[in-house]
């Protein structure tokens, strides 16, 4: 452990991300005290029970009382309310950050609610399909990228401290303009989620193919999409509402490309299909080479010890 | 091991599927002799080197000389040629099967080339994104479904023996009409692959976002799609050409559903998005309950031991 850039950290929102931030900070940063808070009393109770933080505060005021860093870990649509709730109690000099998936909207929400605070928005590109206080774990950020989107004229020292904080949690830090972040993540995260949610819905609603058949034969590819489409509905509703323009832009390009492949299938143009399918192989090799995914086939799924199905249907 | 339904098995095509059939039969069926053949001399040489089969035949004639089962494990567009190559040498009474992903087209191809053979088409719903003779493994079919699509009037004994063969390899067997199979797999396998290939292509070709950014921030969801889009281009070109109508039908439904979600985003209809995203969670729970996917978050990717990236970029 090295000297921590902050010593009194308040984590607002104790789901997958907030829980992981709290656990990682406690595991990896010497001398840091983590206080957690969640607007949901049941989540606070559970967080206390499983020891997510050193203290679970009962109110926003208690949560931030002596914090030198406040990290908002709530859905991007809840940032404004969460920030407003702590606004009257925020200590002078306290740095504010977050983990939201859209950055232009979050910067505006936090800035409006906390006009005097030093705000350094952050987005750790990490997660699982699970949510809630039991979903977090201390190694979620290990080897993942965390994108900081400090506004023009941001305090350089505060930016450096927030960067050091995320590096302390195991992440690699990159700086980016908020608008560009929103475009990049629209294609690497938001559009994939939208498409996964769509196809899982499509498959569930068919008349010609039963849901039981979809489930049984999902190993042909479909099951991969169901993981992403099991992500938190509130979080993702907010992402699409708050990064609307970038998502719609990327969706337009995707639709054009899909129409082109549809035409190749309809016309029986095997050469066009083969050419496209060959190009897309290279990207996966690069992702694995960059340490951003598991190199083992089929995500390393264990083909030797398959779970017994719960029904013999 | 139990008594094998066939004792002399010829596997034609030694890629991921053929290699896995050969390895599984040798590992799990007492007294079975497996002969392998591939039209590609380099694949035959590699298969001999790594011992995929008891014998690697040098010609189609040698491959099927004394077989009581021939399993065609070539791309569906190559079925006709592979069957024609063995047609003059096929022993009387030999049963013919395959592993193709589209069944109506394969039944026709095999039936045309082998008009006197007993044909029981099969489709094991199993695979990885890897291909070639080194990709196969003996447990690929364990716990997976294998769909048999025997034509009307098929010999019941031959169907039962082919079913027993696949059960012997570890699969669970289901019977289905070929046309219905093609519709079911269009939604559980072919459409997911088409969409994955599309979005990976979209992300690679953007002007506003670099390929390096797409790779770096792929953990936000995109990387899941790259696995499927790394699948064998020849195999998938053939699937789309040979199951064209069913794929285009399902693609039409998907496009309608995507347009609906696009409209909800454009209009800011959070309730519609939330409702859709909530429904899609249930399907994943069922898939896990049925033993068709890994229950661990993020496919069980190891967050504690992330690979070191090859460049510090």
From TrEMBL, chains A, B:
Residues 294-304 have a biased composition (Basic and acidic residues). It is an enzyme of class 1 (oxidoreductase). Residues 294-313 are annotated as: Disordered. The keyword Oxidoreductase applies. Its EC number is 1.3.1.12, 1.3.1.43. GO terms for molecular function: cyclohexadienyl dehydrogenase activity; prephenate dehydrogenase (NAD+) activity. PANTHER family: PREPHENATE DEHYDROGENASE (PTHR21363), PREPHENATE DEHYDROGENASE [NADP(+)] (PTHR21363:SF0). This is Cyclohexadieny/prephenate dehydrogenase. It comes from Novosphingobium capsulatum.
């Amino acid at each position: 452990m090295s000297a921590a850039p902050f010593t009194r950290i308040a984590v607002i929102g104790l789901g997958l991300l907030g829980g992981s931030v709290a656990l990682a900070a406690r595991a990896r940063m010497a001398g840091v005290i983590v206080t957690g808070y969640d607007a949901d009393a049941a989540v606070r109770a559970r967080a206390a029970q499983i020891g997510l933080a050193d203290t679970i505060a009962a109110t926003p005021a208690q949560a931030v009382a002596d914090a030198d860093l406040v990290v908002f870990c709530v859905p991007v649509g809840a940032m404004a309310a969460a920030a407003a709730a702590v606004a009257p109690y925020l200590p002078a000099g306290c740095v504010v950050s977050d983990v939201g998936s859209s950055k232009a909207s979050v910067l505006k929400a936090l800035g409006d609610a906390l006009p005097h605070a030093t705000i350094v928005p952050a987005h750790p590109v990490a997660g699982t399909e699970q949510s809630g206080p039991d979903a977090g774990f201390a190694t979620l950020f290990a080897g993942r990228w965390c994108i900081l989107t400090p506004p023009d004229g941001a305090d350089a020292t505060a930016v450096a401290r927030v960067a050091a904080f995320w590096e302390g949690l195991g992440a690699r830090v990159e700086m980016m303009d908020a608008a560009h972040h929103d475009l990049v993540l629209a294609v690497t995260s938001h559009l994939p989620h939208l498409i996964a949610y769509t196809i899982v819905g499509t498959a569930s609603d068919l008349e010609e193919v039963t849901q039981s058949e979809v489930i049984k034969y999902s190993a042909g590819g479909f099951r991969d999409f169901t993981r992403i489409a099991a992500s938190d509905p509130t979080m993702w509703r907010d992402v699409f509402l708050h990064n609307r323009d970038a998502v719609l832009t990327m969706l337009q390009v995707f639709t054009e490309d899909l129409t082109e492949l549809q035409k190749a299938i309809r016309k029986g143009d095997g050469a066009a299909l083969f050419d496209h399918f060959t190009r897309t192989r290279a990207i996966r090799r690069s992702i694995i080479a960059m340490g951003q995914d598991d190199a083992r086939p089929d995500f390393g799924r264990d083909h030797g010890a398959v779970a017994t199905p719960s029904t013999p249907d």
